[in-house]
C-alpha cells in the first residue's frame, strides 16, 4: 500500500499549500443555502480522517471488522468548525492525514482482504475502504478548490 500512502501524502501536501493561501473571509463565505462553507468541508475531512484511521487500525485486529458509520450532518455542527481558526483546521487535517498515510503504508498484505462492514454499507475489503478514503478526500478537495 506504499503507492496509496504516497498518493495520499502528495494530495494532502498539495492541498495544504493551497489552503494556507486562503484567508478567513475566503473560507467562511457562503456557498448557498444549506451548503457547508469551506471550513465545514475541511472539518468534515477532519472527521473522515479520524473515523477512517480507527477503521484502518481496528480492521487489522479483527476478521471480519464491524464498525459504526458516522452522521456527518451531526458531526460538523457539533465540532463548530465554522467558528474555529482556519489555520488550526488546516494543521489538524494535515497531521491526521499524515498519520492515516503512515497506517496505510504499514498494512501487511495479508490484511488487505479483511472484510469490513461499516455502518449500513455492504461489506468491502480493508483495501477497498482505504482506496475509497482517497477517492472521498479528492472529491471534497475538488469542492474546496472550486468554491
Description:
It contains six helices and three strands. It is mostly helical. The chain has a single domain, classed as dinb family like domain (Four Helix Bundle (Hemerythrin (Met), subunit A)). A three-stranded mixed beta sheet has the order 1-2-3. It is globular and about 45 Å long. It starts with a helix and ends with a helix. The relative contact order is 0.21.
Write a short abstract of this structure.
The chain is mostly helical and 147 residues long. It has one domain (2-146): Up-down Bundle (Four Helix Bundle (Hemerythrin (Met), subunit A)). Helix content is 64%, strand content 6%.
Element pattern in H and E: HHHEHHEEH
CATH third-tier fold name: Four Helix Bundle (Hemerythrin (Met), subunit A)
State the share of residues found in helices, binned by percent. 55-70%
Give the tally of structural domains: 1
Shape: globular
The residue-averaged pLDDT reads 96
Fourth CATH level, the homologous superfamily: dinb family like domain
Rounded to the nearest angstrom, the radius of gyration is 16 Å
The total of helices stands at: 6
SSE class: mainly alpha
The order of strands across the largest sheet is 1-2-3
C-alpha termini separation: 32 Å
What is the name of the CATH architecture?
Answer: Up-down Bundle
Low-confidence parts, pLDDT < 50 over ≥5 residues?
A: none
Major sheet size, sense and barrel closure: 3 strands, mixed
Amino acid at each position: 500500500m506504499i503507492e496509496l500512502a504516497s498518493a495520499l501524502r502528495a494530495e494532502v501536501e498539495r492541498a495544504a499549500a493551497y489552503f494556507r493561501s486562503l484567508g478567513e473571509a475566503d473560507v467562511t463565505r457562503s456557498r448557498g443555502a444549506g451548503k457547508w462553507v469551506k471550513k465545514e468541508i475541511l472539518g468534515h475531512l477532519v472527521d473522515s480522517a479520524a473515523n477512517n484511521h480507527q477503521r484502518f487500525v481496528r480492521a487489522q485486529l479483527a476478521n471480519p471488522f464491524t464498525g459504526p458509520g458516522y452522521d456527518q450532518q451531526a458531526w460538523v455542527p457539533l465540532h463548530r468548525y465554522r467558528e474555529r481558526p482556519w489555520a488550526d483546521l488546516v494543521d489538524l487535517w494535515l497531521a491526521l492525514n499524515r498519520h492515516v498515510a503512515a497506517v496505510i503504508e504499514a498494512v501487511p498484505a495479508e490484511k488487505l482482504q479483511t472484510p469490513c462492514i461499516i455502518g449500513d454499507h455492504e461489506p468491502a475489503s480493508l483495501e477497498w475502504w482505504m482506496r475509497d478514503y482517497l477517492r472521498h478526500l479528492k472529491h471534497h478537495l475538488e469542492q474546496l478548490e472550486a468554491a
